[in-house]
Amino acid sequence: MAELNSSMARSRRLPPLAALRAFEAAARHLSFRKAAEELAVTPTAVSHQIRLLEDTLGMPLFVRQVRRVSLTSAGHRLYPILRDGFDAFERAIADLSPRRQRKAVTLTATTLFTARRLLPALSLFREHHPAFDLRLHASDDLVDLASGLADIAVRYGSGPFVGLVSEPLQSERFGVLCSPNLGLSKPEDLKRATLLHVEWKRLELAPDWPRWARLAGMPNLAVDQGLRFTEDAHALQAAVAGHGVIVASLVLAAPEIEAGLLIHPFGPVIPGETYHIVATRENMACADVRAVSDWLKQTVPVA
Q: pTM for the complete prediction?
């Protein structure tokens, strides 16, 4: 109680909150106009509040140029302090508001990752987070998280993810998969098998047959022949049906491998990139988005 009374007795000498909010938004966007749109005021009002803050501090916080602004050294020092402070305010208020409006958090991921890793784990999410809804957005096209089309994403690649905070989730591995009915047991058996190919949109990440053959030391393997698919899910179904052999994700094909529908008869294994949890800094500060992030870590083994 003495500590509380001591805090109450001390008067905080702070600039107006409106001025601090205007500066933080303008520094984050490096734009008075965008800050005004976020705060639902006019750019003139934002400029006025920042001038008030600069007058209070006795130093400029922005370098004003034609159609753009940049932070001064003082602005660079002040911005991260205010940003982290407002983030902390937002988290605390969200955590203390059990009756907040029910919200739907949108999680975007590739079609195959959504089908193989997210859908089977939905019951776990609903069990632990009944207060709000999860919306899954399955797309192989990159979603701009800053646009608000999604709140959080699982992305595959090495990064960096510019303008986003990220955390590694799981490393990918690719290998030969086929139905046990084909009777393949060694790499030489591929010469009598049909090769299944997937036309990846991002060729630099493709675990294709030419790459596998190079690692396996099989330069004479007819890697250009076989059946081709535009969707990796369809190619996996063809492999399960015994129509051929595919180089595919050992992570995402785990259900078929565990059920004995597919086998990984031999190596080598192609190391892939890493799946990451990504979101804007503002979204990751929200309790609901953090709950989705925690659920992903429980659902997918961390790398």
A: 0.57
